Amino acid sequence: MILLFELCVAITISPTVLTDHPLANSFVEFMGFIPSVHAFDSLAINPESIRFYMTLSFFMLIPKAMAVYIFFKKILIQKCPNL
Question: Do residues 9 and 50 lie in contact, with contact meaning Cβ atoms separated by under 8 Å?
Fold first, then answer.
């Protein structure tokens, strides 16, 4: 579900997302301490979109990790109930 959300954002993101939405711009600048957020600025056709997507990806990393943990925990409980 989380990956589908990220895919929808990646497909529908506006090239001027940071210019149009000051809150998104503030969020990206707040997360700017992560080196890869601004790493693709010189290569990207739409650097604003890439910055926003990279920031969103890092922000969603914890929910993704928790979803994987819960998924594997359910599988292990079904396969090895004595653990």
Answer: no
